[in-house]
Amino acid sequence: MAGAQKLYPRGTVKRIIKAHSKRPLSKNVDVLVFLDYELFVQDLLREASINSKQAGERGISARSVRKVTNALSDDLVRCRIAYANSKDEVVGTASQID
Prior knowledge:
Blueprint: H1 10-21, H2 29-54, H3 62-97
């Protein structure tokens, strides 16, 4: 009987994460990152499927995936701006108290 196929190389994933985070990693962080990646891809395909159906396309195309990723990046930029503004307000409020 053949063994189960590996989904991804754990050592490689850990090395990449460690290089980008420059922090110590917990024992199973690579598993969590892989599962987050899987959920992201699943959501991306679901949204791309909805966009392609609304556009009248037969299946998911690169264009429908690009639309979703552009919308996600726009949302991310808006969130970062809102976070930065709220952080400035909190800092400003704290300095006004002194």
